[in-house]
Amino acid sequence: MSNVTLTIDGIEITVSKDKTILEAAKTAGVRIPTLCFHERMNPIGSCRMCVVEVEGFTQPMAACDTRVQDGISVTTNSGQLFRIRQDSLKLILVNHPLDCPVCDKGGECTLQDLVFEFGIDKVEYHAPKQDRLSEYATSLIRYWPDRCIMCLRCVTACREIKAIGAIDIRGDGYGSQVVSVHPDKCESCGECLMVCPTGALTENLSRYKGRPWISERVMTTCTYCGCGCQLELNVLNNSVIGVTTRDDAGVNRGSLCVKGRFGYEFIGSDERLTKPLIRKNGKFQEAGWDEALALVAGQLSKIKKESGPDAIAALSSARCTNEENYLFQKFIRAVIGTNNVDHCARL
Amino acid sequence: MAGLAATFGSGAMTNPIKDVLKAEAILVTGTNTTENHPVFANYIKEAVLKKGAKLVVVDPRRIDLVGLSCVWLRPRPGTDVAWINGLMHIIINENLHDRKYIEERTTGFDDYRNCIEKYTPEYVSKITGIPREDLFEAARIYGQASPASILYAMGITQHTNGTDNVKSLGNLAMLCGNVGVEGGGVNPLRGQNNVQGACDLGALPNVLTGYQQVGDDSVRRKFSKAWGVDGLPDKPGLTLTEMFSAAESGGVKAMYIMGENPMLSDPDLNHIEHCIESLEFLVVQDIFFTETAQKADVVLPGVCFAEKDGTFTNSERKIQRVRKAVNSPGDAKEDRWIISELAEKMGYSMQYADSREIMDEIRQVTPSYAGVTYDRIEKHEIAWPCLSEDHPGTPVLHVNKFTRGRGLFFAIDYKTSAEAPDKQYPFILTTGRVLQHFHTGTMTRQGSGLNRLYPELLAEINRDDAAELGLKDGDFVNIGSRRGSIRVKALLTDRTDRGVIFVPFHFHEAAVNLLTNCALDPVAKIPEYKVCAVKVERAS
Ligand code: SF4
Ligand code: SF4
Prior knowledge:
The structure holds 2 protein chains of 2 kinds.
Chain A: E1 3-8, E2 11-16, H1 21-28, E3 51-54, E4 61-62, E5 73-75, H2 79-95, H3 110-117, E6 141-143, H4 153-161, E7 167-170, E8 177-180, H5 191-195, E9 201-203, E10 216-221, E11 230-236, E12 239-244, H6 258-262, E13 277-280, E14 283-286, H7 289-307, E15 312-315, H8 322-336, E16 341-342
Parallel strand pairs in A: 1-5, 15-16
Antiparallel strand pairs in A: 1-2, 3-4, 3-5, 6-9, 7-8, 10-11, 11-12, 13-14
Chain B: H1 2-8, E1 25-29, H2 33-36, H3 38-49, E2 54-58, E3 71-73, H4 80-93, H5 99-105, E4 106-107, H6 109-116, H7 121-128, H8 132-144, E5 148-152, H9 154-157, H10 162-175, E6 186-188, H11 195-200, H12 217-227, H13 240-249, E7 254-258, H14 262-265, H15 269-278, E8 281-286, E9 298-301, E10 310-313, E11 319-322, H16 335-345, H17 355-365, H18 374-379, E12 407-408, E13 427-432, H19 449-453, E14 458-462, H20 463-469, E15 476-480, E16 485-493, E17 500-504, E18 532-538
Helix pairs in contact in B: 1-10, 4-7, 4-8, 4-10, 13-15
One iron/sulfur cluster binds next to helix 4 and helix 5 of chain A.
């Protein structure tokens, strides 16, 4: 692919000619504000935030969807561009409630950030209030039509990243909303939820349980399949109240499946084992660690002595960590003295 | 993974997941990727939709990826060697194979070619039920693409001839020069988060960490010294399935089971239950009171991934951090603490300050993990083998040279499954997972979220078969095999072929492994989950 040279805000830069102005600006270290644009999707071009001026053209252009050309000179910031962007945001706010204090997304909302950046404190436009029904919702994801800004990220993600197309836009103008067009195909993967730049899609398990800024986020590896997705456990008062992802972390690049995103409730389940149990006269009784471990050590030693180490066998776990698997087989080989150790790789 | 180890010298995914974006063609077989490895499936979708890769799906079930494929082969369950040989027959006949690669990098080609000769499209079509034209189309897509990637999972390995199936896929990849190149490879998708790590760290009866053989004197000397013991056992131990038989016959008297639930996951549950009850002593360490824990003499409460530090190794051999986010409930303790305390009580000192210290010991004794420090994986992604702290890791295996030297072609003939359908048991039962649940359901069936989506067990039955049996959607059926019977709700579908029933194994109320066959693959010792003969009747 051949290269072209252009200037962006006076910075000269050479990029391959299949790049967009937005991509070239990023390479040059120039930030252009965006709202609907998402790295992993084709440009959507619905929000008009990334408009730029190109010398010789009267109309501003969308940087996300315009390819670079040799010799052009691009301006990303001017009075006119500021007003266009401010106006676009105001049009969005006509219908977007300012319920930030009770919205799950408050504090990490792209729209909130942009409104702040463009110093909008009042909206002069009015539109007749249309009641939008909350149509699209799976049992795990809730849709708040009033907060939806019609950026189309969710619809695009479901179509492009998941190749499913379970949701789409229905209705006109301010009455339009995202609806589930193929409810049977939706996998509740939460891809749509994750790319939503506002609080229009929220997780239905942890709603209201904690605000983004008061919960701590711990980056870890998913406990389900072998993809090894990277995810953040959201922790409040020693419980996991949700799972989030980062676009830049791990093989999953922000995606998860239904298990990784919503399968965290078992951690805090009441049915977790909390005390060692010993079977006495056919019934389980709670015991202290000392008693339980002494019993196990005693029995294993006795059987080893009477029948030899190979009369003991052990199963390690594909769910435990590397370090634990290492210790487990070390214990079986070095302390018990047998190679009878396996796990369920085959199952 | 014994098949790949024999063919190439290493039994893991040869290429990273994101490599499929570089593939011109992708052959997916025996993996319902969108349900079992959904994030990997995202890459396959991206490869097809955005990069123009051609997708070949080979699966008895009409899985979702069929919708994106150029061609879908639907073999009769258990006939994998036949179709793979069939594709290779066509590739050789049409001169699509990579002679230079075969000559320079492999061995065993001549015997193998003689064996392939009889697998003409006509013959293969008869065995597998795949139309001749489809065989040609799939062979040409795979043969003409460069590079082309092969992905498979338990649908290939869970057969009595699973090792043969895997070796055959290895043959196919080598035939077209696709091993050791970006965007190519033979890639087994690991079902559970840390199966790869458990294997790597020696939770296997024949090898210590990093696949070092227990039979090798110098290996045992090294470990004896590192661990401060006078010698280690040199004879390979029992595999999981052999352990249970030995328990039944009295050879094994005690078992220590950490984080596994064989009472639901293993084949022929009635038999397993009997084996477990024959034990003199059973210790189970788990986070829930599983079916297996209920049989124990002592139950030790361990902690889950959110409550501990450590590492998991994913399907692509990448070592990644697990970080503690919350405290463990009640008196539950970290598994490493429990193991260390037990060792201590048995007179062996095994104390570590933290998981990092354990990793440092692992690095000392395991060449493939030698360069894997917590500090490094904090900053970069590292896939083993990583031989030293300045080694970058090895995302693609077998570049320029196979781990075993030359890649080995195996001449493999098609053999029938251990249990074929007959008059009395006319259906083939295959088992697996669904998207919303995981393995024995111990974790995913807790809480309301995932259960809201998939609350009860459903047996998938082909619509036409259902019509013959007089079944409606939602009717209950009794499914019986020579070993047991279960009652489940029927889901009429065209995902499963005629004569085939699919039942997931996550549900203890109707445990499908009461029915399955414990016939094993003679090498890998994997039970034949994917094929067993059953009868189906409408239940009252
Ligand atoms: S949850 Fe996933 S499948 Fe369902 S609409 Fe959202 S992106 Fe699509
Ligand atoms: S989020 Fe889903 S795809 Fe990712 S590791 Fe977890 S189970 Fe696998």
